UniProtKB/TrEMBL annotation:
Superkingdom of origin: Eukaryota
Annotated Pfam families: Methyltransf_11
Species annotation: Acipenser ruthenus
MF annotations from Gene Ontology: S-adenosylmethionine-dependent methyltransferase activity
Protein name: Methyltransferase type 11 domain-containing protein
Stretches assigned to the Methyltransferase type domain: 46-137
PANTHER family recorded: METHYLTRANSF_11 DOMAIN-CONTAINING PROTEIN, NOVEL PROTEIN
Length: 271
């Protein structure tokens, strides 16, 4: 079964506009791991649950070919519209049934996405399509460890972020918990003997108040909230704006900094 929470066109547009690219720090960890375990050449990378292609585009300069895979046509349509390199293609397919030959892929990634897959089926497919010594890299961050700051003297705004999560959590599901556990159950289910999780990769991203509000609306939990009670969801966004004002953040253009701790589950297929 696939979770179909990213199907709306409007959601896909919000996603492309407001979600962050995977940070360089995580990209370097993944490429070093691939170099160490498999070595060059880096021919084919497959980015599962690619959404609007943030991670797919980040990988493109490092591979001869990168294929972004997603079940959502709406997300893929937006991904195809974003200028990228000619070595990227996007294909509609579930992560559990991949359109690649056995032993043909150097790297399988999933950025903020693996928690949506059927773990056993997707891992079996990853095992099948990877070349010997090819690698899996599943990256993401736990929403529970994010902090929010402002450099104008107002300082720590994390309590606003906590209020946002408190509001949205009832619209989460088991998959959000899997993500917040840093994919513990997927790590355990990987059958390759060589596997590890790199944790606490600290990343600070600057964004305006406006962009922060867009980022909140990109979450599947917000989309579920908005579907269940559109007025309440809108009111929540207005309430965040009001909270920022109360805390001395005086305009929507003010710059905030979100502090995230990324993790990356890495594994390499035996020879
Ligand atoms: C949170 S988004 C992540 C998008 C992007 N990788 C990023 O870093 O922002 C999760 C994506 O996984 C896709 N997805 C969910 N279940 C899937 C499945 N079983 N197979 C392929 N894609 C799936 C959704 O359609 C969605 O685009």
């Amino acid at each position: 079964m696939s979770f179909r929470l990213f199907e709306g066109k409007e959601h896909a547009d919000i996603y492309q506009k407001y979600r962050f690219d995977p940070p360089d720090e995580v990209k370097s960890i993944i490429l070093s791991y691939l170099d160490k375990k498999k070595g060059k050449p880096h021919v084919l990378a497959v980015d599962l649950g690619c959404g609007t292609g943030q991670n797919t585009r980040v990988l493109a300069p490092h591979f001869q070919e990168v294929v972004g895979i997603d079940v959502s046509e709406a997300q893929l349509a937006v991904a195809r519209r974003v200028p990228g390199s000619p070595n990227i293609t996007y294909r509609a397919s579930p992560a559990e049934d991949l359109p690649f030959e056995d032993g043909s892929v150097d790297l399988v990634t999933a950025a903020s996405a693996a928690h949506w897959f059927n773990a056993d089926a997707f891992l079996k497919e990853a095992e099948r399509v990877l070349k010997p010594r090819g690698c899996i890299a599943l990256l993401g961050y736990s929403t529970t460890t994010c902090e929010l700051h402002c450099n104008n003297g107002t300082g720590d705004l994390t309590e606003v972020l906590t209020e946002v999560w408190d509001c949205l959590m009832p619209y989460g599901n088991k998959q959000v918990e899997v993500s917040n556990s840093m994919l513990q159950e997927i790590l355990e289910a990987i059958r390759f003997p060589e596997k590890e999780r790199v944790e606490n990769i600290a990343v600070k991203t600057r964004l305006s108040v406006c962009d922060f509000l867009g980022y909140v609306q990109s979450f599947s939990m917000y989309q579920a909230y908005s579907k269940a009670d559109p007025e309440a969801a809108k009111t929540m966004i207005q309430r965040i704006q009001q909270r920022f004002l109360e805390m001395g953040v005086s305009s929507a253009e003010k710059e905030l900094e979100i502090w995230q701790k990324y993790f990356c589950v890495l594994a390499s297929k035996p020879e």
